[in-house]
Amino acid sequence: MSETGTDIGNPWVNIGIFAAFVLVTLVIVFRASRQNKSAADFYAGGRNFTGPQNGTAIAGDYLSAASFLGICGAIALNGYDGFLYSIGFLVAWLVALLLVAELLRNTGKFTMADVLSFRLRQRPVRMAAALATLLVVFFYLLAQMAGAGGLVALLLGVDSQAGQSLVIAVVGALMILYVLVGGMKGTTWVQIIKAVLLIAGAAIMTVWVLAKFGFNLSDLLGGAVEMAGPEGQSLLEPGKQYGADGTSKLSFLSLALALVLGTAGLPHVLMRFYTVPTAQEARRSVVWAIWLIGIFYLFTLVLGYGAGALVGPEAINNAPGGVNSAAPLLAFALGGEILLGLISAVAFATILAVVAGLTITAAASFSHDIYANVIKKGKVKPDAEVRIARWTVVVIGVVAIVGGIFAQNQNVAFLVALAFAVAASANLPTIVYSLFWKRFNTSGALWSIYGGLVSCIVLIVLSPTVSGNEKAMFPSADFDIFPLTNPGLVSIPLGFLLGIVGTLLSKEQPHPEKFAEMEVRSLTGAGAEKAVAKH
Amino acid sequence: MTDLSTAGPPPGETEYQRVQRSDEFQGLRRAFRNFVFPMTALFLVWYFVYVLLANYAHDFMSIRLGGSNITVGLLFGLGQFVSTFAITMLYARWANRKFDARADALRREIEEGEL
């Protein structure tokens, strides 16, 4: 075992396994790209994926490095409170299953804005929805890219600032290549492969950990308690992370609300529902996604406590990646450098697959909503739209690389929770109202989107995450007027409320004929976008 | 709303409005909403009961079961997984068996212009 860099394991094994992943996925992406002709090919993979394929890709899109490394680490260090986090991420899928997935598939084409602008005034609503999409994607992307830099220190033994920046640039460049060449089809295959690797890797580790404790969950928990020392019993009880005082409890409530209502408003999740031929397949996608994601989070429960028991909180805290190092350290403790290499490669693949999905979502939103429909008022050839989308991919890739390099030493973990809060406050109310509320109008949509968006940003800027304490983004500044670390508790009810107020205050004439079309189409699937015929 | 049995379609009414008014569609819409709205309310209430218990009833959630390290809170958390899987299966079964055939029949009527 070579002790180069800061950490255990052999960086060359990690790099080798990761390179193999990149090579295999690139071949698949190039093969998939042969059919990328129309906009429906580029944005929606020709709508030809099956439910199980898309469900696996959704799991690959959703299970970001934050959920894998973050939740394992949170359970290892904070016990029960880390587990609470994963439950919000899972239950949220029922909102998507029951209220959104099928109706969206039946009424939209490529983006969330397609559904929102169905019966409202196209240009202002598309503009607002596209801005919300771009912002959510940007927050999420920045968190992933910055996380990539931190992971490198841990997994590849690259300590230097320059080395980490280089890795961020490589991740960004690969992402641009995948999306440019493969479009949605290539991105989907990368996500499917990654999901299979991630879930299989987690499954192997889970069985391994359980075997060490005689397949007795209670003994595993006991092991984690013992390893944590005198305070160990608190790992089994709620409140270790969020239970300090009334404010931190409200912060947790706020987070729980954002998690459960955010998923069904995440643009990169919504866009995946267009890659299947019918609403029935969209339903199967979500069913598959719920099983895969749920089982994966059950694995993380074992892995988190397993890391606590076999590695111990002290070793995790002292490792270069801190909380994020729990899962890789556990892999090393179990299977040495080969398993560490596999899990590290999977963690990178995870980042790559998630950023690719985010990028194609942002590109679709900019070129389909802002360029084609707002700027060109719908008078644009599909070829030109896809060309703009490809350029957008390059621009977003560059922004993500630069942003990721600047953000790498910042505490940006809150950005994922913020993305969920914006999705729940700005996107979900308008989606639900436009699908189910006849009276809903343009003004309601604009109030809700902009109100939800602005309140989220303002509240997070004024929160203790950004200033006022040593863990904040700007520790020396002091403008933390809003006490909660997540804005959801205020901004989500506000987003829903503003949608109602804006609707009732407007004198806009209702369009019963458009609502009729939307309602009939959403439930029956009449006139829904068809799959592209296979060439 | 006009009387369906005697009058023809109101002037200027679109195809989709005609479908929307039909008994078949109204029945389909009612069936859908009667399933998904109560189900949504159910899982959201159950989720927030759980979150509030975990947040404000630490002593209750920390009770160990029979000398093991398994707590009431862990069982409640695993219960969220069970309920999520159960609702998923219930909905998929209901939609596959009860909803799709009716929705498909309406879709064919609309697309073939028979209604």
Task: Please describe the structure with a list of short key phrases separated by commas or semicolons.
heterodimer; A: mainly alpha; Sodium/glucose cotransporter; 19 helices; B: 115 residues; 74% helix
Helix content of chain A: over 70%
For the largest beta-sheet of chain B, the strand count, sense and barrel status come to: none
- How many domains make up the 3D coordinates of chain B? 1
- The coarse silhouette of chain A is globular
Tally of helical segments of chain A: 19
Number of strands of chain B: 0
Helix/strand-derived category of chain A reads mainly alpha
Can you give the mean pLDDT of chain B? 89
Our Rg estimate of chain B from Cα atoms comes to: 23 Å
CATH architecture of chain A: Up-down Bundle
Q: What is the percentage of strand-forming residues of chain A?
A: under 5%
Class derived from helix and strand content of chain B? mainly alpha
- Unreliable stretches of chain B (pLDDT < 50, length at least 5) are 1-6
Q: Based on Cα principal axes, name the global outline of chain B.
A: elongated
Tally the structural domains of chain A: 1
CATH class of chain A: Mainly Alpha
Distance between the termini of chain B: 19 Å
Which consecutive residue ranges of chain A, at least 5 long each, have pLDDT under 50? 1-6
In short:
Chain A is mainly α and 535 residues long. Chain A is built from 19 helices and no strands.
Structural account:
Chain A is an all-alpha fold. Chain A has a single domain (11-29, 40-524), classed as Up-down Bundle (Sodium/glucose cotransporter). In chain A, 74% of the residues lie in helices and 0% in strands. Chain A has helices spanning 11-32, 39-44, 51-62, 65-78, 80-107, 112-116, 122-155, 161-212, 217-227, 246-262, 267-272, 279-310, 313-318, 326-375, 382-407, 414-436, 442-461, 488-505, 512-524. In chain A, helix 1 crosses helix 8, helix 7 packs antiparallel against helix 16 and helix 10 (246-262) crosses helix 18 (488-505). Chain A is globular. The N and C termini of chain A lie far apart (51 Å). The relative contact order of chain A is 0.18. Chain B has 115 residues and is mostly helical. Chain B has one domain. Chain B is 74% helix and 0% strand. Chain B has four helices and no strands. Chain B has helices spanning 15-21, 23-56, 58-61, 72-111. The longest helix of chain B is centred in the last third of the chain and has 40 residues, at 72-111. The radius of gyration of chain B is 23 Å and the shape is elongated. Classes of the chains: A mainly alpha (535), B mainly alpha (115). Chains A and B meet through helix 5, helix 9, helix 10, helix 12 and helix 19 of A and helix 1, helix 2 and helix 4 of B.
